Amino acid sequence: xxxxxxxxxxxxxxSSNGYNLLFRRYHKYSSVQQQYSKSSxxxxxxxxxxxLTNETxxxxxxTSLFNGLLGLVSMGGDIFVAVIAGVQxxxxxxxxxxxxxxxPSESVYKILDVDFYSVDNEVFDxxxxxxxxxxxxxxxxxxxxxxxxxxxxxxxxxxxxxxxxSNIVKNHGLSHNLEYTIDNQDSSxxxxxxxxxxxxxxxxxxxxxxxxxxxNAGFLTFAIRGFCKTVLVEDGENTSSITIISRISTxxxxxxxxxxxxxxxxxxxxxxxxxxxxxxxxxFSYTQIDASVPxxxxxxxxxxxxxxxxxxxxxxxxxxIAFNKHFDNLESKYGVISILNLVKPRxxxxxxxxxxYKQCAESKGTKIINLEYNSGIFSKSKHKLIYLLKQDIxxxxxxxxDISRGIYFGKQTGVLRISALDSVEKPIMVExxxxxxxxxxxxxxxxxFEITSTFVDxxxxxxxxxxxxxxxxxxxxxxxxxxxxxxxxxLFNSRVKLYxxxxxxxxxxxxxxxxxxxxxxxxxxxxxxxxxxxxISHDDISEWIFPKDSGLHKPASIYIIGLxxxxxxxxxxxxxxxxxxxxxxxxxxxxxxxxxxxxxxYVCSWxxxxxxxxxxxxxxxxxxxxxxxxxxxxxxxxxxxxASNKGAVAVSFNYSVTKFCILVSHLAAGLDxxxxxxxxxxxxVKNISFxxxxxxxxxxxxxxMGDFNxxxxxxxxxxxxxxxxxxxxKLFEKDQLNQQMIAGESFPYYHEMAIDFPPTYKFDPGTKxxxxxxKMRIPAWTDRILNRGEVLKQISYGCAENIMFSDHxxxxxxxxxxxxxxxxxxxxxxxxxxxxxxxxxxxxxxxxDRDLILSEKxxxxxxxxPSVLASGISSAASIFLSEQKRGKVLPPPSSDIKKxxxxxxxQVKVTxxxxxxxxxxxxxxxxxxxxxxxxxxLFIPRHSIP
Length: 946
What we know:
It is found in: Cytoplasm. The protein has 946 residues and is α+β, with helices and mostly antiparallel strands.
């Protein structure tokens, strides 16, 4: 990677692998581009290689080796391009053995230095042209970005071009690419997000061919903070590597290294640490997290004795809401959470904080151990610690992948959340001990791999090195929190806008001509819900998955399966998840789909379990490539939100540009609990959310299914008689859910197809006989499938009456969904056509004149595809109406420049060849210009009206 400084006008050019990216200040503001006048704005564009050969225009910085673009930062009104100027290769989590040589599959680099080049002036250029200690000191002390340079060069920042450092290994795709990383990386661990956001947005707007060249150039760099290192244990066939990756979170922004949490549930001192062990045959991973005690507290100076004293700012009750948010976020990301809080013995302040922590955890329904520690527990009494955590270690599991067979045979379903009041060392000591125990347990099941004394030594040394760097980072921040708070404010609050005149111009046309490269198609969806009563059954379920009256002529494009009570709802299972059950049902359904559908093969694209609820999504391999932005969320509602015996699991995804949301839920039971079921519904709607603030209602299509537990308000005898007579409509009139929906209470705006099957609850298991127990439950349609969104059309609704191992019957529904698909090839062809015509029009003009024309005028509008643009008003109006029907926000208000009802970006201003001195508007015409009036002319002579 090379860096050039341009003159007249001043610019910075980054060059890599044949692609040259120019940045310069944007000064020309037009009425059309007013949004760029309110912030620091930089023009970004690609330039040809020939331009850089002009030494009178561009000067290359040759005193350093550059390794990546960290982004753009605004400091004191000036804008700087941040470039990585020094790295060290420190890791390769995955590798292959070829001819007895270890070949890394990826590389992780530690950042050693970063340069900041001004887009605005040359004041500091001379310091980069000659590298010496004196100039380096001046860059730290005098340069506006000196504090950021010192920060990024402190040895705690890392990046990789072929490995997503922000995500644990189990969340990585099978192959790495920049597109996947951008869509799926965990931004809470990326420290230069504010510096790269605009570059990513610009990248997404440029044509695909150019985007590929940009990606191959390796410009974008995503930096995490913490520690990363790989050590290799060479031992022939038993060769292995150990990698530790510690990620410091930015979720609490400027207060990342302070104490406690905030009202949004963001906690300070949050570190996610993952150990990755790679062998010739396997990849093994285990994750733990440590963070500040998630309560509102602070340190105060002790006036009598040396040291600091803990002070609670809010009581446990006052902290509960923020506490719950914090753990809801953790559960959504990691699964089951088990807390280990380390407490100093004989410390009253720590004891009181620990009791408050325990109170909040018990109220939330999260398992917690408050462990009083001393130095001996980490050296002489490790077995006591392992004894306390043994159950959690077994239940949470670990990630394991068989390289040779290409299968996942182990999955971590939760994490330990460790905290100590004022120590980095103690949580890391616990993590090291747990890491060794987990490895020893796991390797007992890994054939052909055993832990040697050398391996153990390397493991322990790596953990100590991890402690050294994290402690060093935290110590610097804790000694001068106000200083670093200001630095983080500069880093996280930096905002720079990018403007590419040509690509911006093309993107505006493409938005207006969207209908030319998008099309609608129908896909089919199978949705099934089943309360399995905590049983693992080997019975055939084909009748449910492939019903004869499904209305589908071939297998569905997408299968969505929701299960309730996948574990017995006993106290021992309310707060934890049995991973075996999830794996069993995933394998059972996937095997059925792939052995019954001929050539079409399916993959389990997403699944998640919360207690007794399990939601799985299977897609045909041909459709899977169109799915993006898959994201899940969960919400407990059992026992006031503490337990996972009731609640919901949700998934959001995009099929091309159509947004889907699928939910499975288990609501409160009992004939008289209608109000509680309504409250469960409201709680789920309020709390389920996805990235960028997306809520359930914001999707184009919603399918909500599960055991809703609504009953029929009739006597047992009457219900059973009507079932025998198959007069289901009479039963439906008394169905609680039907009455709630009619009243506009629960599930407003949702639809349910007419029910033409008998109630699915409650049966004597193994029979077709409704409940004969002492309770004699009234039969009811507890198992339901609802939908919302105009893109969905339901085809069938039924139940599988012959699957009898549970006291419920499985229910299914099939849909067609009219999805909007983006045709990338058509879009690129249209973009190319627009580009060619624009360049023809601008041929021979200087760069400044080109920018001026592109920003001030729309001279080419009528010259581009007149047949396409002729659709005008009707297409724009139809788009607006369809968006309005879907519940989208209204279009921007009309202005003098643009009105929403004028299509394809046509200007509002119309030139009329009428002399206002002699002509006037006909007052006899209807004032509505869209009403045809052949009898009265639009303009008449002024003298014709007395």
